[in-house]
Amino acid sequence: MESAFARTPEPPYFAVIFTSQRTEGDHGYDAMADRMVELATKQPGFLGVESARDAGGFGITVSYWSSLEAIAAWRAHAEHRVAQETGRKQWYAHFKTRVARVER
């Protein structure tokens, strides 16, 4: 479905690649994930997001940003910080975040 693809501008821009392995049970995860996308779309420099998770709980979310400064502001956003901390403590068995500059 084409609507699941982020509509990004011509490069360069930045991608934040978040890979994770979920723990068992929801524990408020789905609601928080929806809230984070809602909030991110309102942040200056946000360009789009794509996300997928398999039945075993492994997921990849890629968010696209206009600059490193926009990424840093999102990372520091108060409500996002709460989600990050809850993720570390409750929702993720393992996770990794990578930032890349998109050239093409």
Would you write up a description of this structure?
- This protein has three helices and four strands; from the N terminus they run βαββααβ.
- With 104 residues, the chain is an alpha+beta fold.
- It has one domain: Alpha-Beta Plaits.
- A four-stranded antiparallel beta sheet has the order 2-3-1-4.
- Helix 1 packs antiparallel against helix 3.
- The longest helix is centred in the last third of the chain and has 14 residues.
- The model has no long low-confidence stretch (mean pLDDT 96).
What's the helix and strand layout?
Blueprint: E1 13-22, H1 29-40, E2 46-53, E3 58-65, H2 68-76, H3 78-91, E4 92-102
Antiparallel strand pairs: 1-3, 1-4, 2-3
Quantity of strands, as a count? 4
Oligomerization:
single chain
Q: Which CATH architecture is right?
A: 2-Layer Sandwich
> Strand-and-helix sequence, N→C?
EHEEHHE
CATH class: Alpha Beta
Radius of gyration: 14 Å
What is the overall number of helices? 3
Q: What gross morphology would you assign?
A: globular
Strand numbers in spatial order across the main sheet: 2-3-1-4
Biggest pleated sheet: 4 strands, antiparallel
Distance separating the two termini: 22 Å
Could you tell me the mean pLDDT?
Answer: 96
CATH fold descriptor: Alpha-Beta Plaits
Helix content: 25-40%
Strand content bin = 35-45%
User: Ranges with pLDDT <50 over ≥5 residues?
Assistant: none
Structural class: alpha+beta
Q: How many structural domains can be distinguished in the coordinates? A: 1
